[in-house]
Each structure stands twice: as C-alpha cells, then as structure tokens.
Amino acid sequence: MLEQEHHVPGITDTHPVPLLPLAQFFARDVPGLAGPDGADVLQVLWCPFSAHGDLATPGIHLRWRNSSKVGELLAEPPLPAVIGDDEYVPEPCVLHPEPVTEHEYIGLLDAGLQERIYGWEDGQAEADEFEGHEPPRYQTDLSTAPGWKVGGFATWETSGPYQVVCTCGSPMCPLLTIASTEWEDETISWVPVEDRHLAEEFEANTPTRVTVGRGGSLTIFTCPTDPRHPHQVTLQ
Asked: CA 66, CA 46: separation in Å to the nearest integer?
C-alpha cells in the first residue's frame, strides 16, 4: 500500500508500476550461464516495493531473451513514478566479469574438515606475521566471495545452511547474488586489485548503492533441470 509520503496524484494502490532493471548478462561473457534453449541474454528486474517479493524483498523477475530477436531498443526506458525505498534504485555500473575461485560455506563441510580448518585458523592467529591485525579466516577470506556475483556458492550467515528445492524436486543452484557491499570492512582479501587503493575510502565498497535486507545479500536460485521453473530467493 502507498503510504502518505509515497503519494503521487493519479496513482492508486493497484496502479501498475514499471520494474527497475538490476542487471543484464550475455552468455558469451559469463561462462556457465545457461538459460532456456535459444536464449543468450538474461535480464534481471525487480519491483521497487518490499511487500511484492518473497522474504519482504522486492519481487524478482527474470527475463531470458534471444539477442538476435530483440527489436527496437528504448532510448528512455519507463521508470516508476514512486518507489518503496531509494536503496532499491541501482546506480548505473559497467560490468567487468572476472572469474574467482570459491569454496563451500563452512557449515556444509564434513566435521573432520571443519576441525582442520579451525585448527589452521588458530595457527594463523598465533603467527608472528599477523601480530597486530586480523589473520585470514576461512569464511571471510577464502570461502564465499562477497559482492554481486553470478553462480558460485551461497552464504548462510544468517539462517544457517538449508537446501533450496525446486517445485520439480531438483536441488536449486545460485544464479545471482545481489549484495549490499562488494567487500567487508574487516577484510580486503576479496577487494579487486584495481580497487585496493580505494579500499579504505567511504562507500568505496557500495558502487551500486543497492541495499537488501539489513545490509546483507539476496541470492536468486534457479532450477538446473529447467531454468524456466519458478526461481527462489534467500536473504542473508
């Protein structure tokens, strides 16, 4: 429902609102990005109101397209006259895809491997080379990369790990993570090399100006059997 501060003359609670574009990916630029047969472009949009999506998030809409069949492009795409939160409006950014190596969330590893990792972390904490500052830790420095990303592993910092299952019964896979920050303030291990000189600057880690939840991340899961099946989201 539109609150008083969101009131715009001529618009009612049921008035259609244009979706906001979040990201566009070409399959040629993103290895492993697989859509329906004949589709080579993925467009991700959302509704700028929290109540219209799952888990009190903006409603996500995935549009797979064949680039050769796209008609006339709009010079000025329609924009909503009112939004639920200005943190849902992304700052225009140019993507520079870069493959990175991730490792599974620690809570999903077998108990023996977890114990070995904790032992390694304890050893790092006692190492002379890290005296006076934080030593590297598996979960924050080596496991799941923060920031916006396609594919990879999901993080489960808030809810703890659970399996996301499609309506067809297939375990679903992360398609896209929408993050409030590109890296955490307490670690620089995931900061791109070209941005290291900006790591300490205010808001350098928020280029999109998008915030989800309470500053966490939202991951969109899709079915590996058929990407046309309904997607699901997690909020961490």
From this structure: 20
According to DSSP, residue 11 is labeled -
Alpha-carbon gap, residue 206 to 200, rounded angstroms: 12
The token duo for 56 is 């009190």
Per the confidence metrics, is the pTM higher than 0.85? yes
Q: pLDDT tens per residue, the chain (236 residues)?
A: 445 555 677 777 777 888 999 999 999 999 889 899 999 999 999 988 887 767 778 889 999 999 999 888 888 878 888 888 889 999 988 888 888 999 999 999 999 999 999 999 999 888 877 766 778 899 989 999 999 999 999 999 999 999 999 999 999 999 999 999 999 877 778 988 888 888 888 888 999 999 998 899 999 999 999 999 999 999 99
Cα–Cα distance for residue pair 169/218, rounded to 1 Å: 22
User: In what side-by-side order are the strands of the sheet with 20-26?
Assistant: 20-26, 41-46, 60-65
CB 172 within 8 A of CB 223: yes
Residues 6+ apart with CB under 8 A from 145: 100, 102, 152, 190
Question: Which runs of E-coded beta strand occur in the chain?
Answer: 20-26, 41-46, 60-65, 149-150, 173-179, 217-222, 232-235
Q: What backbone torsions phi and psi does residue 163 show, to the nearest 5 degrees?
A: -85, 130
Classified as helix, coil or strand, 52 is helix
